[in-house]
């Protein structure tokens, strides 16, 4: 793991759209079924929109029917950090990019086998690098 990427909000704002900035830097949640990747089926690597670190693979993506891209595993346990989130009157596990602290989404324990996990991620936090065959 290399050093953390630290930028000011102004610097992030310059490299992101308003929606991407709100989600990744202010922990907003995009409206379900509005993001660009919730029903994406292409093969490839989902990278952090902020720092381009690979976070999830299309191989672990599944349709959770929730309107957000869902994965049952991250590419590397060290790539995604888990944080306790008690906002909105709920106790949830927030997941952030380990490299740049971008808010990604939340982690739930109702996913499919083999992990039983469901990473519920905002499309706005991701950048899909499609595999070209
Ligand atoms: Zn990142």
TrEMBL record:
For this chain's record, the cofactor binding note is:
Binds 1 zinc ion per subunit. The zinc ion is important for the structural integrity of the protein.
Q: Which PROSITE patterns match?
A: MSRB
A cellular component term, taken from the record's GO annotations:
cytoplasm
Q: Which residues bind Zn(2+)?
A: 48, 51, 97, 100
List the GO molecular function terms.
peptide-methionine (R)-S-oxide reductase activity; zinc ion binding
Q: Which GO terms describe its biological process?
A: protein repair; response to oxidative stress
What Gene3D superfamilies does its record include?
Answer: Peptide methionine sulfoxide reductase (2.170.150.20)
**Boundaries of every MsrB domain copy:** 9-131
The protein's annotated catalytic reaction(s) are: L-methionyl-[protein] + [thioredoxin]-disulfide + H2O = L-methionyl-(R)-S-oxide-[protein] + [thioredoxin]-dithiol
Q: Which InterPro entries match?
A: Met_Sox_Rdtase_MsrB, Met_Sox_Rdtase_MsrB_dom, Mss4-like_sf
Source domain of life: Bacteria
Identify the catalytic residues: 120
The record's family statement is: Belongs to the MsrB Met sulfoxide reductase family.
Protein name per UniProt:
Peptide methionine sulfoxide reductase MsrB
Gene source species: Reinekea forsetii
